[in-house]
Amino acid sequence: MASNSSSDSLPAPAAAGIPSSRVYPLAGAALLLGLALGYFFLGPKAQPPAAPVHAAAPAGAMGMPPGGHPMPTMDQMKAMANVKAAPILEALKTKPKDPQLLAQAAAIYASTHQFKDASTYYSKALEVDPKNVTTRTELASSLYYSGDVDGALAQLQQALKYKPTDVNALFNLGMIRYKGKDDSAGAIAAWQQLLKAHPDLDRRATVEQLIAEAQQKTVGKN
């Protein structure tokens, strides 16, 4: 995780990316790929992805989204991210410590599954604005998808120190404990804390279903 806030260490746009005419078809395919991974959203606004849950594969042939465009490769998704992030990266040359710009760049890379780049930008944003719970929760998601389960859990715990009742931090804490650590008891504790803090949660039924599933898994281990 980078600690230098200078723009010199930021990932640079690709010299030769994909043609602009292909950006939008690839963007649609990237969205489908995100859905296939089982991204989970809570609350009235779009929030950072939680840990993967089982989801049905998208319709259509293997590797072919319903729209007919082939699923992009990771290199194509990286190029797509660089194209979309280019204006933000340019702005960061003059404002390398702008937390909003850094978070925007991170979100672009996260949306195209470039989670290590996303983690770098989220980390830099937090160096400037360490108490931003949303950014820290998004960093946790990117770390998780990068394979750093312990780092993700540490970021969520830190986020909850700043805001103990944050919906997404609590939900993701449970998901990562459950899927990343096989810690059913820890997941249940996080989700029960979530429901206690937010009794009118709009996705309450989904969280209760996850709790029931984790409880059954716990019983099966005994």
Describe the structure in your own words:
It is a single chain. With 222 residues, the chain is mainly alpha-helical. The protein has one domain (18-66, 73-221): Serine Threonine Protein Phosphatase 5, Tetratricopeptide repeat (Alpha Horseshoe). It is 61% helix and 0% strand. α2 (74-92) packs antiparallel against α3 (99-111) and α4 (115-128) packs antiparallel against α5 (133-146). It is globular. 38% of the residues are buried.
List the helices and strands and how they pair.
Blueprint (H helix, E strand, L loop, with lengths): L22 H15 L36 H19 L6 H13 L3 H14 L4 H14 L2 H14 L4 H14 L3 H14 L6 H18 L1
Helix pairs in contact: 1-2, 2-3, 3-4, 4-5, 5-6, 5-7, 6-7, 7-8, 8-9
Short description:
61% of the residues lie in helices and 0% in strands. By secondary structure, the protein is mostly helical.
**Helix/strand order:** HHHHHHHHH
Structural class: mainly alpha
Form type: globular
Largest beta-sheet characterization = none
CATH topology (level 3) name: Serine Threonine Protein Phosphatase 5, Tetratricopeptide repeat
Keyphrases for this structure?
disordered N terminus, 9 helices, 0% strand, mainly alpha, Serine Threonine Protein Phosphatase 5, Tetratricopeptide repeat, 222 residues, 61% helix, single chain
